[in-house]
Design goal:
Elements (H helix, E strand, L loop, with lengths): L4 E2 L8 E2 L1 E4 L1 H4 L14 H14 L3 E3 L7 H11 L6 E6 L1 E4 L2 E4 L3 H15 L4 E7 L4 H7 L2 H10 L3 E7 L3 H10 L2 E5 L8 H10 L2 E5 L14 H9 L6 E5 L3 H11 L1
Parallel strand pairs: 3-4, 3-12, 4-5, 5-8, 8-9, 9-10, 10-11, 11-12
Antiparallel strand pairs: 1-2, 6-7
Helix pairs in contact: 2-10, 4-6, 7-8, 9-10
Amino acid sequence: MSLTRHPLPHLETLVSCIGLGTVKWGRNQQVKYPAFELPTDATLHALLDLAEAAGLNLLDTAPAYGIAEERVGQILQQRGGSAFVVMTKTGETFIDGESSYDFTAQATRSSVMRSLKRLNRDHLDLVMVHCSADDVSVLRDTPVLETLERLRHEGLLRSIGVSTMTVEGGLLATDLVDAVMVPFNIGYQAHLPVIEKAQLVGKGVLLKRALYSGPAQGSALTPQEMLGPLLATAGVTSIIVGTINPEHLRDNLEAGM
């Protein structure tokens, strides 16, 4: 048995219903996790071995994830090519322990060119705008989406998305791009209208923060109990789960099946 796969607009390859987040591959500063060491290459290969065996083919990375993009590119190159759809982002960077945002045309183009180099690719599968809290303003008042469309026309990327912060931003994004990423879990479902609208207009939906169940539920719930209802939500394309623990990934993959 392997993970179900779903289409994303402008991508020829279907993507698995569970995707692997890579923030912990490259960043252990200013993150909402207990202190940890960055994983070794051997651990990353073990994670990808598990992923491939289960049919997981979607990796989520970003310039804001420290050195994660470089490590994704290096590890996939070591594996002799890529069986993975790689999603990266633009707009946020993380340098010297601080995040900063820049949605100008120049910064967006530079970000895409840098990601191409880091990931060792001639084009990017999916580029998401890594929105700040004022996501509506980012989408309406900056040239980031227009610039990404130009880059797509140049053949440098395939699909365009937005990782949103607010419900209003998510609803706006469904009109403008191919896919949205929204926070959604069993304890927080304010963005359900975004998922419903995206399904109605044929856009992809990626879920972030899916394994946060809230302080009321704590850690008593299993991955199956947390992920199962989300996977059953109509309109959800893929749930992004981030881990550097092979056992945790195995549990998440089993829940996805």
